[in-house]
């Protein structure tokens, strides 16, 4: 069974805490942190306060790298591989690939031929959202962290004004 998760557009790279909701609008996760320099990290918490996943920037020069953690256990390293007409990313250890139209938030995560997640956009009565369709709920926290990094890269390309996007400072919306 595929589960849907929604993140309001303009929230992932904004100066705010980011809530991840289900299709009924119920808050499931809170994503907080900061990006821009080596050692910066995003942490994903269940609404109970339990840390469920995080992603840490380990390299800034010569291609950013991000370590993925499920709870406190390192499970993978995200790297950008290609940047031609379509971006291509690889997550070592998990053997996941991310490909598609990152710029327009329409991409998929695969492990071999098995789809892990699909990202698209959705317009609901409360606004525009990123819609993550995740095949296995156990993969959802890592998928949310990966989506945050891809949005950061996209946001950073667009912004590119020398300032660091900061997450986790502000109020929940």
UniProtKB/TrEMBL annotation:
Q: Which Pfam families match?
A: LOR
InterPro entries (UniProt xref): LOR, LOR_sf, Tubby-like_C
**SUPFAM superfamilies listed in its UniProt record:** Tubby C-terminal domain-like
Q: Which family does it belong to?
A: Belongs to the LOR family.
Q: What is this protein called?
A: Tubby C 2 family protein
């Amino acid at each position: 069974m595929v589960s849907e998760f929604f993140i309001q557009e303009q929230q992932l790279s904004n100066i705010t805490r980011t809530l991840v909701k289900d299709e009924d609008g119920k808050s499931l996760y809170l994503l907080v942190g900061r990006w821009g320099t080596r050692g910066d990290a995003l942490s994903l918490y269940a609404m109970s306060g339990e840390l469920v996943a995080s992603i840490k920037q380990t390299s800034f020069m010569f291609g950013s790298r991000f370590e993925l953690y499920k709870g406190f256990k390192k499970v993978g390293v995200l790297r950008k591989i290609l940047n031609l007409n379509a971006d291509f990313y690889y997550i070592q250890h998990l053997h996941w690939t991310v490909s598609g139209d990152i710029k327009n938030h329409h991409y998929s995560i695969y492990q071999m031929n098995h789809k892990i997640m699909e990202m698209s956009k959705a317009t609901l009565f409360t606004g525009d959202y990123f819609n993550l369709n995740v095949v296995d709920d156990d993969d959802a926290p890592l998928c949310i962290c990966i989506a945050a990094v891809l949005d950061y890269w996209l946001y950073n390309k667009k912004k590119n004004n020398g300032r660091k996007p900061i997450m986790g400072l502000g109020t929940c919306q």
